Amino acid sequence: MLLSGAGMAVAYYLVTLHTAIAKNPHRGLCTFTDTISCDAVLASPYAEIAGVPVALIGVAGFAALFFLAVICLCIPWWGPCRMRVTLVLVAAVGLCFELVMTGVELFIIQAVCPYCLTALGLITGTFLAAFWAWRSGRFAPFHAGADHA
User: Fold this and answer.
1) Is 81's pLDDT higher than 70?
2) What interhelical angle do 2-23 and 54-74 show, nearest 10?
3) Closest of 80, 70, 76, 84 to residue 143, by C-alpha
4) What is the rounded distance in angstroms from the CA atom of residue 84 to the CA atom of residue 38?
5) Pick from 72, 81, 131, 147: CA 20 to 30 A from residue 112's CA?
6) What's the angle, vertex CA 129, arms to CA 7 and CA 66, rounded to 5?
7) In order of start, what are the domains of the chain with their CATH numbers?
């Protein structure tokens, strides 16, 4: 839950950067060098899919992961039985999407965004944690009022 919550925050910040860069593309909000530049990535035509900012898709994906994790951990009669595989699959789709977008940054745009790389790290961690918990059977449901000492 922590990784997906952090992912939502990073993706939301990227949405705000995308909006600011769209209004003033020469402002230099996040440019360190020619190849380490959020500005170059977020001003590129690859920053949107059908008019929707890719970062907004990231917010939605991380939000879905967050709520799936809450269901898996906090609703013991429903979550662990039915949702843990869904959590792993959604995380895997998010990781694949992020890997494709990172490939676009590296090989087409030829610039990388540090915040996008942070999102890649967070989705990788989210996938690995969800996969490990699923495979090891470690989804220990949280019971309100139970002693967890």
Assistant:
1) no
2) 160
3) 76
4) 34
5) 131
6) 40
7) 2-136 (1.20.1440.130)
